[in-house]
């Protein structure tokens, strides 16, 4: 998922661009007179990847824009759609334009060229972050193909456990946008939710963003789900990506609780997740679902660089063994979370087990999970450009 700005007054070109890039990317129209400063104002949290200048924009304006951005935000890649001549291409490249593409190029060609540009933008962003020593936190995404298997239980306990190790440096984000229950699982009464953070003025500035988080007594911060399920429809995957990106610059750990399945948000955050935590129940549909999910993610080249499988509700009466699960999923189970009498109570009371430390067989497993991610170390590295290129 990359963010493209279309600088054009031609509805026809804008349509061609949007259709060529398809739903996997965000295309946003900007006024055809936009300057480098206007583009920078839209570049919240470094979210703009590519500016595509339409065939109706004067070459001089494009060159000035490319030169300006090259100086102010060199990770933003400028591409020009124009009928090319050797002279124009040369002048364009000299000004900082990355590529010149025929405006009526077939959709697939256009998409490939633009995804190449987005990949360039990402590697420039990464290089810049490394150069300035800008530290990014670990993004731990808790996921499962099915609901009710313990994602929220795992994510809230993990986040609270990490907050004890790294107080004020952990944030949990409820990405189960429709039916999220992180607030209830942590007994929080949020003043603001993710809707306020991504739809309001806070989406602009990471300083303001912190004011939209709800503090928990463990030292954890929470970005809670919208109050009304209908609000979820207003939130776009790209806005979620920008938010997670911003939070990862502020916190050592960003723990993501998600809705079941591989929704658009989950696919979008998988690009940012440094670690995937997969929760699976002791039942065949759940285990098959995980296996199929892994298959799809491998094909899309979206598997996070490091993964943990949590097998939940382990007991001796399910008719399945851990070895059966491992054989189906094709990888070892990392954490076994036993069926517990206390966990449903702790969910209902809104006090994660790790927080009150009540004696329970599940507590040791949850602590083992926390220990797997602490202390804060560098996240596993990933190869962004390759991944981007493979999403198409
Ligand atoms: N190991 C477990 N033993 C007993 N109950 C559990 C266990 N894990 C989760 N639960 C309970 O199952 C219910 C669903 O868990 P939840 O974490 O909300 O799942 P999800 O977020 O995947 O929908 C909750 O009431 C929770 O307390
Ligand atoms: Mg949940």
UniProtKB/TrEMBL annotation:
Gene Ontology process terms (BP): negative regulation of cell division
Residue ranges occupied by any AAA domain in the UniProt entry: 138-294
InterPro entries according to UniProt: AAA_dom (IPR025669), CheY-like_superfamily (IPR011006), P-loop_NTPase (IPR027417), ParA/MinD_ATPase (IPR050625)
Gene3D superfamilies tied to this protein: 3.40.50.2300, P-loop containing nucleotide triphosphate hydrolases
GO molecular function ontology, one term from the record: ATP hydrolysis activity
GO cellular component: cytoplasmic side of plasma membrane; cytosol
Protein name: MinD/ParA family protein
């Amino acid at each position: 998922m990359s963010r493209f700005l279309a600088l054009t007054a031609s509805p026809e070109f804008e349509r061609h661009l949007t259709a060529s890039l398809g739903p996997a990317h965000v295309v946003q129209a900007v006024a055809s007179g936009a300057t480098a400063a206007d583009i920078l104002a839209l570049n919240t949290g470094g979210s703009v990847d590519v500016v595509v200048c339409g065939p109706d924009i004067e070459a001089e304006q494009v060159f000035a824009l490319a030169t300006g951005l090259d100086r102010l935000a060199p990770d933003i890649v400028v591409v020009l759609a124009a009928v090319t001549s050797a002279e124009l291409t040369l002048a364009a490249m000299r000004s900082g334009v990355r590529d010149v593409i025929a405006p009526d190029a077939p959709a697939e060609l256009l998409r490939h060229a633009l995804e190449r540009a987005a990949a360039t933008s990402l590697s420039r962003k990464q290089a810049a972050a490394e150069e300035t020593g800008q530290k990014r936190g670990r993004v731990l995404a808790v996921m499962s193909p099915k609901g009710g298997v313990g994602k929220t239980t795992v994510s809230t306990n993990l986040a609270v456990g990490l907050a004890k190790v790294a107080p004020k440096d952990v944030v949990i984000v409820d990405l189960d946008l429709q039916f999220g229950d992180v607030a209830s699982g942590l007994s929080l009464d949020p003043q603001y939710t993710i809707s306020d953070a991504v739809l309001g003025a806070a989406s602009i500035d990471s300083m303001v963003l912190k004011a939209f988080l709800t503090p928990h007594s463990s030292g954890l911060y929470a970005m809670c789900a919208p109050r009304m399920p209908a609000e979820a429809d207003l939130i776009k995957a790209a806005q979620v990506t920008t938010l997670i990106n911003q939070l990862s610059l502020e916190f050592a750990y960003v723990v993501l609780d998600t809705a079941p399945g591989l929704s658009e948000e989950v696919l979008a955050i998988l690009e940012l997740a440094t670690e995937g935590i997969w929760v699976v129940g002791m039942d065949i549909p759940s285990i098959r679902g995980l296996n199929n999910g892994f298959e799809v993610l491998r094909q899309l080249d979206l598997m996070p660089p490091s993964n943990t499988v949590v097998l939940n509700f382990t007991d001796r009466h399910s008719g399945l063994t851990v070895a059966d699960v491992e054989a189906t999923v094709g990888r070892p189970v990392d954490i076994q979370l036993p069926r517990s009498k206390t966990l449903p109570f702790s969910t209902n009371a809104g006090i994660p087990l790790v927080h009150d430390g009540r004696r329970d067989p599940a507590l040791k497993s949850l602590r083992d999970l926390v220990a797997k991610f602490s202390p804060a170390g560098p996240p596993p590295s990933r190869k962004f450009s390759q991944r981007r290129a493979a999403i198409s």
